[in-house]
Input
Amino acid sequence: MGMGNSTPVSLNPKDMRSILNTLVGSEAVKRMARYQDRAFNLWAPCVYEEYEHVQNTVYNRLHLPENFPCDSIFSAATFNFGGKVWTFKHRDFLNWAFGWCAITALGRFDHTRSGQLILWELKLVIDFPHASTILIRSAVITHSNTPIHPDDFRTSFTQYTAGPIFQWVQNGCRTEDQF
Output
């Protein structure tokens, strides 16, 4: 949703389709997606229920393909490759303000010297080793990572849901202008 769309759409670029289908079909990636989903349900069950309502409304009305059928409540996933993955200080302002974002760090890196997660308003710097997962409210908490040491290799996998999808459902499956 967003970028001028009047309904939620599947963002699956044609030039990346086979790579993405291979990734989301991988048992390892499905396990990560499922783990992130179950952790979210454990820590924020009421918010999770709202995600279920929104996801069911979208998929039943538009018949869009799910990223991970029966494995994840999130509507979007991002694979951050490149080997030296880290982020600048930011907020994911297009995500739902009450929503959560699941982040899993992957790779071979010394988490005590690089790749730490910084949650700026909370004044926290968190060691974030390989295979660690965290759930944050990425739309309202400014976050970043420390740069990766030259000898290290780091990627990440995230799942989230865009705020306009919640708004579209709350508006009776209409955009704000249509509402």
Q: What stands out?
A: The mean pLDDT is 88.
